[in-house]
Amino acid sequence: MDREFYVDHEFEFDVVNSNSSRFLHWCIGQDDLFMHFNSRRVVEECEINGKRIPAGTNIGISPLYLGRRVELFSEPNSFKPERFDVVTSAEKLNPYAYIPFSAGPRNCIGQKFAMLEIKAIVANVLRHYHIDFVGDTTEPPVLIAELILRTKDPLLFKLQDRVY
Ligand code: HEM
Prior knowledge:
By secondary structure, this protein is α+β, with helices and mostly antiparallel strands. It has one domain (about 5-160): CATH 1.10.630.10. About 20% of the residues lie in helices and about 20% in strands. It contains four helices and eight strands, in the order ααββββααββββ. The strands form four sheets. It has a two-stranded antiparallel sheet with strand order 1-4. A hairpin with a 2-residue loop joins β2 and β3. The longest helix has 18 residues, at about 110-130. The protein is globular. It starts with a helix and ends with a strand. The model has no long low-confidence stretch (mean pLDDT about 80). The structure holds protoporphyrin IX containing FE. The site of protoporphyrin IX containing FE has 13 residues, from α4. Protoporphyrin IX containing FE binds near residues 35, 101, 106, 107 and 109.
């Protein structure tokens, strides 16, 4: 799967063939270093899960926390990109479980473009370099919640030219 990115030096990533990179797409989905929090103000009183929510309430929604709920994602802390396979995975049944680009009428209008951009960059880096993590593997990275989620310390990688 996605074999062409890694073995064919001549392969050019473009808008047309970007859809063939399904595994890469799932891997990006698995990465949640996206926006970890967004919010909405309730304009009209409503009820959610049996709770009365008065008008004027601010509601915080955390895509990061949703992605860690076992009732939505099995083994949420495991790297399982194939969970994002819409064809075979049952985990994406709820369209509001995975919302790094938010959801509803005010969701991200740049979602498709952003995914294409990330895929183009990752595909080209992987095509040219073999990458090894050379940072500390004894401790999990400390996460810092700013506008986006990032690690407190840099993650260290070694890049070597791929030999074809
Ligand atoms: C990985 C990259 C990106 C992520 C994770 C992301 C995430 C989001 C999220 C979560 C929202 C909704 C915020 C909310 O509900 O309060 C949003 C809105 C928005 N995004 Fe993105 N975004 C990304 C890239 C982009 C790009 C590349 C563009 C433009 C080319 C863009 C344009 C917008 C715009 C215009 C809105 C506001 C939509 C509205 O309010 O109706 N985003 N984005």
